[in-house]
Amino acid sequence: MTRVFSGMQPSGTPHLGNLLGAWMNWVAMQDHADCVYCVVDLHAITAPNEHDPATLRRRTVELATGMLAVGVDPERSILFVQSHLHEHAECTWLFNCVAGFGELHKMPQFKEKSAGRGESVSVGLFDYPVLQAADILLYDTDEVPVGEDQRHHIELARDIGQRFNHRFGEVFRLPKAVHPPAAARVMDLQDPTVKMSKSASSEKGIVHVLDDPARIEKKFKSARTDSATDIRHDREEKPGVSNLLEILSAATDRGVDALVTEYDGLGYGTFKGAVAEAVIELLRPIQERYAELDADPGEVARLLEEGADRARAIAVPRLERAKDAMGLLPPGTA
Questions:
Q1: Selected catalytic residue, list 106, 111, 195, 323
Q2: Domain for residue 190, yes or no?
Q3: Residue 196 clears pLDDT 70, i.e. is over it
Q4: 113 in active site
Q5: What is the pTM of this model?
Q6: Could you tell me the residue range of the domain that residue 62 belongs to?
Q7: How many other CB atoms sit within 10 Å of the CB of residue 238?
Q8: Is 272 an annotated catalytic residue?
């Protein structure tokens, strides 16, 4: 089976963008792929002055619980926490000795996140893509589902793996990026020109997976649209309406064109109410399952431990092979 790897940072409360843009695809991929999913907590500490240790621990559990509640199935997939396997950090060092300073310095996300910060930028932020390459390459990954903003990172992972193989022999499989279908980019409800984000969205612009129905309804009713009344899909002229159409399409598994036909002429109030109702119904079973898991943290810990054991069984042989290829002396030999 095709092996898929994907990870998500525990950088905030899970939201609708995570669900529609990633998790629903993750769940679907379990039907036809060998899936490895990871809570990438090591990536979350690349800005050391911007996180609180207790908050990081809580968010790591919340994110893992959310993945399980959505339908990531430990019987069919591997789910684990990145820092539970030291092999990721160790492999990163091997790749650091293969990656080039210039190619890391040119990475678009580093340029964006380091802008105006001078020498206060952490080495971890600079090295973030190399750790991501280790995450992916340790698992003989075939496909990495990502948004367009992560395409450069997957290309770098391929470059690092290919360079390693050229210098030391064939050790790593080279992955390819795959892009999720429509609704992969859920936009902010108050500024539909930017992606819904834990860090950038206002509270009114972001729908959290655990928001109660009344709160969800209020957020959609106040969602920004435009001064016209027609309902049609046009990202340039009608970004707010288009965002709501895509959310409704993803929540109901109906085509955008059919939704336009049904709701055009009924007014924005009716349309927004329908979107809110669909999202509430989509989230209802997820919230119920989350509450069950949240009440039994020992079970979540057990599932993550089992997932780490299964991940380790794949990662350790690959790392040992890489170390041997580079000429590192195994313990107990001379």
A1: 195
A2: no
A3: yes
A4: yes
A5: 0.91
A6: 2-178+297-326
A7: 19
A8: no
